[in-house]
Design goal:
This protein is mostly beta strands and about 180 residues long. The chain is built from 3 helices and 12 strands, in the order H-E-E-E-H-E-E-E-E-E-E-E-E-E-H. The chain has helices spanning about 10-15, 65, 170-175; strands at about 25, 40-45, 60, 80-85, 95, 100-105, 110-115, 120-125, 130, 140, 150-160, 165. A hairpin with a 2-residue loop joins strand 7 (about 110-115) and strand 8 (about 120-125). The longest helix is centred in the C-terminal third of the chain and has 9 residues, at about 170-175. The protein is globular.
Length: about 180
């Protein structure tokens, strides 16, 4: 059986083009956005519609503002975005209900996860890939410390049409202790 073929004109196809120079980044909308170690800019390129039933700990992986402003507004089973961050910066431990894959585009990035009370990690460089299964507490951090003032870029791909992010209990406690969340 042959696959269905469709014809898409240039104007319609332009809706599926995201020029990096035109992307709008957001630095808020997540529980850890105001934490000094977590400052970063997230770019919602493909998908990331706001999840249903989100609460303080459960959000869109890119935050509310970015989720509402996808450059390519489609729901076709995956989402793609970028993160710009300076060395030492990245999100707190969090979890997703779907797969999340990280691909550093520039710099060095430490991708960590929790297992049996311990933190494991791999350090990745440009074009390396790590893919976390659903349910694993994970985080990433720019570790390009020899360039202290330079932001580097990480691409992330997350499965699903409305993926959810949930910060770890330890991350939520830390945010409350710092007065960055309501008790």
């Amino acid at each position: 059986m042959a696959l269905k073929t469709i014809r898409v004109g240039r104007e319609e196809m332009r809706k599926r083009v995201a020029l990096f120079s035109e992307l709008k980044g957001f630095d808020g909308g997540l529980p850890d956005s105001d934490h000094p170690d977590c400052k970063r800019t997230l770019y919602n390129v493909v998908g990331f519609q706001p999840p249903e039933g989100a609460d303080t700990a459960t959000t869109s992986p890119v935050g509310a503002q970015a989720a509402e402003n996808a450059s390519i507004k489609i729901s076709e089973g995956f989402n793609l975005g970028y993160c710009h961050a300076k060395p030492g910066k990245g999100p707190m431990m969090h979890n997703h209900d779907t797969n999340e894959t990280f691909i550093p585009m520039t710099g060095r990035w430490r991708c960590s996860w929790e297992v049996d009370g311990q933190v494991e990690a791999f350090e990745l460089g440009p074009h390396d890939v790590i893919s976390f299964p659903p349910g694993v507490q994970r985080r990433f951090e720019n570790v390009t410390f020899d360039e202290p003032d330079k932001e580097h870029l990480l691409m992330f791909v997350i499965g699903g049409n409305q993926p959810k992010a949930e910060f770890s209990p330890g991350a939520m406690d830390d945010l409350r202790d710092r007065g960055l969340l309501e008790s």
